[in-house]
Amino acid sequence: MKFLAYMAQSLLWLTVAASPTLIGVVIGVLLSMQAGDLYSLRVPFCGFIGFVIGGLWAERIRKTIGLDTFLGKLIGMPELNNSNKKR
After folding, report:
1. What is the pTM of this model?
2. Cα–Cα distance list, 40 to 12, 34, 37, 62, 76 (Å)
3. Tens digits of residue pLDDT in 6-44
4. Which residues contact 24 (CB under 8 A, 6 or more apart)?
5. Where are the alpha helices (DSSP H) in the chain?
């Protein structure tokens, strides 16, 4: 059972770290397109920088409030649940 809990926590950690990684990849693609050289090391480098930032952010969240609490608050936002209702 500990293995399943570890796998769940690992997936939650990767979920939090994925958003800065994707932002870094997008920035790398934009920089590469602007320079005119799409096959350079800008994309993996910016993606790596985003993953490091995302990893540090995920570790901070894990140590302070917990990954499951953080993602639960994001999913359970009342603004998202009541998007169809008028105030």
Report:
1. 0.77
2. 31, 12, 6, 34, 41
3. 999 999 999 999 999 999 999 999 999 888 887 788 899
4. 46, 47, 48, 49, 50, 51, 53
5. 2-35, 42-64, 67-75, 78-81
